[in-house]
Amino acid sequence: MKKWAKLRKKLVIPGVLAILVAMLLAGCGGGKTESQKGASDSQQSAREKIIRISEANVPNIDPGVGSDYASSIALANLYDTLVFPSHDGTLKPWLATGWKTSSDGLTWTFNLRHGVKFHNGDELTAEDVVFSMQRMLTLGEGYGYLFTGVVKEVKALDNYTVQFTLKKTFGPFLSTLVRLYILNKDQVMANIKPGPYGKMGDYGKDWLITNDAGSGPYMVKELKKQEHLYAVKFDQYWGGWDQDAPDAFKIIGTTAPSTIRTLMTRRELEITDQWQTKEALEALDRIPGVSVNAAFTGTILNIMLNTKKAPTDDVHFRKALAYAFDYDTVVDKLFPGCRKAKGPVSSVLPGFNPNLTPYERNLEKARAELAKSKYAGKLDEYPVELAWVAEVPDEEKIALLLQSNAAELGIKVNVVKVPWLSFVDQVAKPENTPNASIVFVSPHYSEAGSILESRYHSKSTGTWEQCEWLKNPGIDAAIEDAISTLDTNKRFEKYGAIQEKIVDLAPTIWAFDQAEKRAYQDEYVVWPAADLIKQGKPVTSVMGYMFYFHDFKVYPNKVPK
Amino acid sequence: MKLHSYLLRRLLLSIFVLVGLSIVIFIIARVVPGDPARMALGPRAPQFAVDALREEMHLDKPLVAQYYYWIKGVATGDLGRSLVTKRGVLEDIMEFLPATMELVMVSAIFVIVFSILFGALAARYKDKWVDSVIRIMAYTGVAVPSFVLAVLFVLIFGYLWPVIPALGRLSAGVQPPVSITGLLTIDSLLTGDFPVFWDALKHLFLPALALAIGPIFQEARIIRSAMTDNMGKDYVAAAVGYGIPNHIIMGKYLLKPSLIPAVSVMGLDIASLMGNAFLVEVIFNWPGISRYGMEAMLRKDLNAISAVIIVFGLIFVLVNILVDLIVAYLDPRIRLGGKL
C-alpha cells in the first residue's frame, strides 16, 4: 500500500507534464478532425475554381486611387478599359471598337461597344467614360498623373462616341488608356458623401474603398483590409466565359515565406507574390505540382550614379565603373533567371533599341577610362558612397559586388544601408544624393518613352526615380520631341536615338533586367502568361494584366492529393 | 489610503502620461524623414494633389498648429484618415484592435496559468529533475523570440503535421459571426454559434502560444525564485512545525506572497504582448492592430502611427493600474502606504 502511494506520488508530476505536452501538441483537441477539415477546405476551395494570389498588400480598388501591383491586378479584373494590352506589346480594341485621331494628334475620338453591362445591370455609355476621366483628372491620385498633364477636355458626342482633347500632342496616349478604368457614373453618384470636391462631394471615394462600379469580368464580393480581396465571376460579362475559367479570385495581402509555403503546400494558394527570396522559391519549386515562372515585365535594377557629385560627376569615372561591373556574375550566380540589361530600357518594352552596345566587364577599358578621368591619381580622396535600400535585402549583393569590382581599379566604395523613407528624403537634393544608389524602376505604361521620361527627364530629378540628376537640356528636348510624335515608327526611332545618347553618358549602371518570379500550381491551373513564356513568347509588360483571370483555367479534378 | 482614492489618483496621473506620450509620438512621427503626402501619392503625382493632401492633413501648418488640430480631432473621436487604407483611422482601429485583443487575452491566460504552474512546480521540486526540466525550458523559451516560434509553428503545424490550423482567424469557408465585440470567440458564443467558436479558438492557439512562451517562462522563474526565498522564512517553518500539509503550505502560505513580484512584471509583459504581436501577426496572417501599426510606420502613415501608439499607451496605462490594484490586494501594506 505504501509502495503504491509512493508510486502514485512519483507519477503525479510526470503525469501533469504529459497532459500539458499533449495539450500543447493537440491544440484544443483538434486532432484528426482538423486534419481532415484542412484537407476538405483545400478540396472544397479548389472545387470553387478559384485563383488565389499573394501580394504585398490588399489592393486599393478605387480606380482613381490604386496604382500599386496588387491594385493593378484587381483593377484589370474589376473594370474595363477602352483598349487592352496584348502580350506582344500592341493594343487591341476593347470597350472602344475603333478610334481616329486628328492630324495634329490633339483630338482622339473613340466609338464604344454597344450592350456592355455594368455589374449592377446598367449599360455602359460615353457619359461613364467622360465621368471616369474627369474623376481621374480631379483626384490626381493613382494613375491620374498619366492624364493630368495631357488631357484638356473630354466630352460625349453621343451615347457611344467619346472625344478627348489633349493639351499637347502625346504619342503614347493610347498606351496610357489601359489605366483609364471605366466607372458607372450613376452608381458612383448615388454613393457620394460630403467631401472636398464641391458638388461631387467625396467623388465616391469612401464607397469605392470596398465596392466596385465596374463592368469587368469579376465583381467585388468582399474586401477585408489587411486580409484579402475576394471577387466573383460576373455572369453577364460581355466577353463571355470559358467553362473552365475561374469562378472567383482572391488577392491575399501577405508575403511571409512560411505562410506562403504552407498555403502552397495545402493548395490554398495558386500563385505566389514576386517577393519570395531565391531560397524560398527553390523550396516552393520542390513541392509536387508547383513550378516557378519567370516573366520579364520591363523592370530594371539600376545603379544610379549622381552626375552632380564628385567623383561620379566625371563621365570617364562613371564609364570606368560601368566597365568594371561584373554583369555575368549577376545573372549567373546572384540572380539566376534574370538577364543582362542592354541599356536604360528593358528589352521587352516597345521602343527598345536592340542595336545598343551595352557595357560589358572589361578591366582594361575600365582602367583606360579611369586614366582619362580628372580623379585619376586622386582616388583616395574621392571614395564612392553606394546606398542600397534596407527593405530590399537582395540589393546588398549588388552593392558588395560593385564594391569588390571597383576595388580592382583602386576605387574605394563605402556601402551604406538606407531605410526607404530616409532614402526618399536624401535624394531630394543633389548634394545629399549618394554617388551611387541601387533602385528597381518599372515603366508606368508599356513604351520606352515611359522609362526615358521618368528616369532621365529633368522633371523627375529629386525623386527616387532619378538619382542621377542628369539635367541635360538636350536629352530633355529629345524626350519631349519623341513623346509628342504621333507616328509610332518615328517615335520609336527617336526613342532609339535617345537610348544611344544616354548609354554614352553612362549615368547609370544597368545591372540586370529583372525576371518577376512567382511559384504557381501548374498541375491544375492554366496561366496563359506562363504558357507563353514556356513557348519563348513575350508577355505583356503592363503591370497587372498578366493576371487577367478571365483567361485563366482551373481544373479542380487535377489538384494533387 | 482607501482603494477608490488610490484608484482615482492613479487615473489622474495617467492622463498626464497619455498627454506626454501624445506629444512625444506626435513629434517623433513627424521628424522621421520623408513627406507623407508625397510618399502616399507617389513620385509622379501632380503637385496639386500633393498640396491638397498636405492641406487636408494640416502639414502645411506649423508643428504646434498641427498638434492642435490633431489633439482636437482626438478629443472628438476623429483620428484622421489613414494614408494606407484610405479610410478613417478610428474605423481601422475598431476593425483591427479586437483581433489583437483576442490574441493577447488568450496569450495572457496562457501566461497566468502556465507561469504559476511551472513556477510553483519548480519551487516545490527545487533542484530535482522537474526543476531542471523547467529551467531548460525557461532558458529556451526566454531566449527564442516569439517570431521564430511563430515561423516554427507555421512550418510544423501548417506544413508537416497539420493537426491544428496555423493561419488566419477562421478556416476557409467558415462564416464569421455577426460582429458584436469584434472578438470572434465571444461573438460566436453570444450568437450561439458553437462550431465557429471552436474553430476560432483553435485558430487562436498557435499564435497565442508563440506570443506567450517567453513571458510564461520569465514569470515562472520569478515565481520560483520568490517561493524558494520565502521557503526559508520563519512563518513557513512554523507552519511545517504545526504539521500543516505540504500542499496547503505551498498553495496558501507560499504562493500568494510570492506572486507579488511576478504580478508586477506580468502586467508589463502582457501589455508588451501588443507590441510583440506584430511579427506574429504577419506570420500567422492575423489581421490585428500590431501589424497595422507596423505597416503605418513603414509607410509614414502619420495619423495611423499616432493613433496606434496612443491606443497601446492607453492599454499599458490601464494594465498598470490593474496590476497595481492586484498587488495592493495581495499586499495591503502597498495600498495603505506602509502604514501597517
From TrEMBL, chain A:
Membrane topology per record: Lipid-anchor
One term under GO cellular component: ATP-binding cassette (ABC) transporter complex
InterPro entries, sorted: Peptide/Ni-bd, SBP_5, SBP_5_CS, SBP_5_dom
Superkingdom, taxonomy of origin: Bacteria
An example Gene Ontology biological process: peptide transport
MF GO annotations: peptide transmembrane transporter activity
PROSITE patterns (alphabetical): PROKAR_LIPOPROTEIN, SBP_BACTERIAL_5
Residues in Solute-binding protein family domain copies: 91-459
Localization (cell): Cell membrane
Keyword presence, Disulfide bond: no
Cited Pfam families: SBP_bac_5 (PF00496)
CDD domains: PBP2_NikA_DppA_OppA_like_7 (cd08512)
Family matches, as SUPFAM superfamilies: Periplasmic binding protein-like II
Keywords of this entry: Signal, Transport
Family stated for the protein in its record: Belongs to the bacterial solute-binding protein 5 family.
Name under which the protein is recorded: Peptide/nickel transport system substrate-binding protein
Organism: Desulfofundulus thermosubterraneus DSM 16057
From TrEMBL, chain B:
PROSITE patterns: ABC_TM1
GO cellular component, one term: plasma membrane
Domain ABC transmembrane type-1: 97-327
InterPro entries, per database record: BPD_transp_1_N, MetI-like, MetI-like_sf
Keyword list, A-Z: Cell membrane, Membrane, Transmembrane, Transmembrane helix, Transport
Membrane spanning residue stretches: 12-32, 103-124, 136-161, 200-217, 259-284, 304-330
Topology class, membrane: Multi-pass membrane protein
Keyword Transmembrane helix: yes
BP terms from Gene Ontology: transmembrane transport
Highest taxon of the lineage: Bacteria
Span of the signal peptide: none
Pfam families: BPD_transp_1, BPD_transp_1_N
Keyword Membrane found: yes
Record localization: Cell membrane
Family per record: Belongs to the binding-protein-dependent transport system permease family.
Name of the protein: Peptide/nickel transport system permease protein
